[in-house]
Amino acid sequence: MEFGPFLLLALMEGLVGAAVLALTASGLSLVFGVMRVVNVAHGEFFMLGAVAAWFVSQWVPGPPAVAFAVALVVCPLIVAALAALADLAILKRLKHEPEATIVATIGLLYILQQAALTVYGPEARPVPAPFEMRLQLPWFGWSGYKLFVIGAAAAVLLGLWLMLTRTRAGLVMRATQIDRETATAFGIDVTRVHAGTFALGAALAAVAAVLIVPIQQAHYLMGGDPLLLSFIVVIIGGLGSLRGTLLAALLIGLSDGVISTFFQPTLAKIVATLLVALVLVFRPQGLFGARA
Amino acid sequence: MTRALTLPLSRRSVLAGGAALAATTSLPRFVQAQSAQPIRLGFQLHRTGIGAAYGRWYERTALAALKVVNEAGGISGRPVEILFEDDATDPRRGAEVVEKLATQAGVDLIFGPLFSHVVIGSAPRAAELKIPYLVCSEGYHVASGKLNRWVLQPGITDVRAQVTAMAPWVTQNLGRKVTMIFPDYAFGHDHRDFFSAAVEAQGGEVVARIAIPPTETSFTRYFPRIPRDTEVLYHVMVGPAVLSFVKELGEFYGTGPRPQIFGFIDSLEAVDIASPGLQFLEGSHFWEGQCRMLQPDASDAERFYRAAVGVDDAGAAVEDPRNVSCYGHMFSVWETLFAIKQGMEACNWRGPQDRQAFVEAVEAITDMPAGRERPQGAKVFNARLHQAFGHQFITKLDGGRLVKVHETRIEDSLYDSDVDYTAMPF
């Protein structure tokens, strides 16, 4: 294929990856920023969103678009409720201590993964896309749905930004992030903020999964890759910095698309991991991190 | 991390399955045997992990064959039991499963795995434990001579033989400039090496070789590497994302010009060929180990097998048309169980003390005629290679149906080799 179209395809593929990654990683980043919890089970919330979307697609009659719309609303809510429950039942009891919560979320990862295996089974199952549309370019065809994924992810991220900067809930979350004790002194119910943040983080992963599942299929082991990439993005962007997370997601997503199209996907992973190492050595707080 | 956790689950379900099996197999017709002790076979099953779709159908086929064997009096008049153990389609776990089945469960021998990395990872342990290990794996690793005398493959032709038999048809009917897309591990490498050699022997050329990790979930990024002058696109994929692979291939070519497509049915095992997005496959060709859709000239044996396993004429489960089978591969489980029966009866199997005699008895098999024991068709067994050689089928997707257009002869699949397992020590 000629260089121009080749690059175009690489960038388009990279943008899809970046969009989904930005959603997933912003959830992880938010949870760390506000709660100081490294959520190792984040990828499993992503997986649960996809699996839930498959169940919705089975239960909701009518055209795929209706089931998809229902899934886009219901699945993140289910996953968010589950996450809030996990926070109240497990993480709160550990007083959100960093070391303890890492171990606890590792356990949560296994519990969620095995529960999915038990209930949903080991198969990869397709979820129909809300619409079948193909972009036919002179050099290659491309799924029109992937364009929708980019747009929808951008819309959700914009909504998240507005929520954090323009609403009372966002204000309370930012207050808790900056100083937990002072926030408590000002009458903020930190327990509720934590549960809500954990739920919101999980819901963002679930939204990403619902968007991606018509492309990828739902599978109980699908949480591994998003988790790894989210960590890479969050470390490069700076733990807890949403702006850094978004920029790093764009950087990693696009470079992954370009490098893996022109060379090898394995090389793309190597470069991303190398980047993490370099960031940790030369700028441990990340590109936009506030504290070392 | 996954595998550590799948263990307790599978152990429990194996116990439950074993108990249910024991309850159903204790039929009164085994009284004439010298010993009424059941023969216990271990099955290394890909119940979870990337091979789960195969595992589901391999288990179903094994249970169907077991029922047929037991209803006909078992092996040497003794009832047969199968103990399934999940290996999570993982090589390290595979070796542990061999160990567990042999030492803890005390099975007589082990059979059943498909994925080549699991077989290669497990075979050394089988040799250390000196237990026969019969694989349903297709890969060339058995016939290559790199495994050991305890590993046998009597139920399915290896990849080298398959592609050697089919390459002439591909180059003569579809084109001479081939691009190969294959999974990046042992099984895919067998395809890459031997199909390339076979095409070049026919005067053709492999213009690009695109390796894809079997755990990959997104494929579009690989397709620009398909050269423009490709005449035939040869694809073979495995893993949970095979449907995404073919869908994205369809999106990539769209309505534009595309090369001829020749795919191994592996890319579509357990996938409904009428899934949305797969319309572009119409007119493309497939290798099938056995034709998924019932052909008009199907033998009585094949019809019997299809009914026994519970597969409808389109290749899906009779009770659920959405549950599409792995029909191109799963016959190997059925045929391997009957090869085990033949070997055990030939060596007057008494118990684990006869394991070596069993291997020698299977090595003594040469002709494997078609029949209910071999519904896929006749085979010959090459004792030196520990490998069976059979017919291969090329089908064309025509009006949504896979129609047989070519059947290779057994002779077409033979190749020269100086491997000799029978000269190796036990």
From TrEMBL, chain A:
Primary residence: membrane
Keywords: Amino-acid transport, Cell membrane, Membrane, Transmembrane, Transmembrane helix, Transport
Membrane-spanning residues: 6-32, 44-60, 66-90, 102-122, 142-164, 195-215, 227-254, 266-282
Membrane topology: Multi-pass membrane protein
Record keyword Calcium present: no
Source species, domain of life: Bacteria
GO MF term (any one): transmembrane transporter activity
One BP annotation, GO: amino acid transport
GO cellular component: plasma membrane
Subcellular location: Cell membrane
Membership in a protein family: Belongs to the binding-protein-dependent transport system permease family. LivHM subfamily.
PANTHER family: AMINO ACID ABC TRANSPORTER PERMEASE PROTEIN, BRANCHED-CHAIN AMINO ACID TRANSPORT SYSTEM PERMEASE PROTEIN LIVH
Record protein name field: Amino acid/amide ABC transporter membrane protein 1 (HAAT family)
Organism: Cereibacter ovatus
UniProtKB/TrEMBL annotation, chain B:
Signal sequence, start to end: 1-22
A single BP term in Gene Ontology: amino acid transport
Keyword Signal attached: yes
Key word Transport present: yes
Ranges for domain Leucine-binding protein: 38-400
Sorted UniProt keywords: Amino-acid transport, Signal, Transport
One Pfam family matching this protein: Peripla_BP_6
Family according to the record: Belongs to the leucine-binding protein family.
Name of the protein: Amino acid/amide ABC transporter substrate-binding protein (HAAT family)
Native species: Cereibacter ovatus
